[in-house]
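Appendix B. Worked example

We walk through a single record from start to finish. Start with the input: the chain for PKD domain-containing protein, marine sediment metagenome, length 217.
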Amino acid sequence: MRNLFKINIPVLLLSLVILSISTSAKPESSNASLEEIDLGISVTLKEWYENQSGLTGDDEVFGAYVTLPIENELYIGLASARPAENSGDGAYFAKFDGTQISGIGHFDEQGIHEMIWDGEVIHVAGTDPHDVITGGNNWDTGNHYHYSLDNHTLTKYRDPVNGLVYAFHSWGLWKDGNILYAAVSSHDGSYPSDCISGVTCKGQIFSSNDNGITWEF
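Next comes the structure step. The output line below is what the pipeline stores for this chain.
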C-alpha cells in the first residue's frame, strides 16, 4: 500500500518550536516611570534656546526633535519645525553632560530630525535647508553636517555640483563600512512649490565615500 502521508521532518520540528515559543511567551509589564532631566538651567528650555541661538522658539512645536547618547554625553537637536513643515527659523545643536546643557552651534535648517555617530564624527542630516540671510528656503542643494568630538567643531558641507543636488529634505542616514547613505526628498530643479510625486519630486538614496563631503546617486 502506498504511503499517502509524507512527513517533512524539518518543517515539523520548526512548527513545534514556533508553537512552543508562542505558547510560552507571555507579555510582561513594569512600573517604570519617566523623570524629567534637570538641565542645570534656571529658565525653560525654550528660553535657553532663544538666548543661546537668537532664534524664536514656537510655543506649540518647539522641542528636542532628536537626541544621541555618546558615552557620558547626550547630544540634542533643538528646533521649531516638524518634518516637511514650512516653519521655524533655524535649528540649534546642544549637548548635556549629565549636569548642565551647553550650546554647540547653529544648523542652517528649518528643523533637525536625524543624526548618527560613526565612531569618529557625528553626522547630522540637513532636514530642510534654510537661508539664514533671506529667511527663505535654500533648496538647490542639501546640507550635511559633521561634529567632531575631538576638536569640538561643527562643519557644514554643501556642494552644488557634487553634493546633495536638489535635495530639499534629508530623512535618514546610515553607514555601512566606509559608505555613508542618505535618504532624501529631491526635486527636478523646478523648486517644488507644487510637488508632483514621481515627476517633479521624488525620493532618492545618495551615497558618499568621503563621509558626506561629496555625494552621488
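Two observations about the output. The radius of gyration is 23 Å. The longest strand covers residues 167-176.
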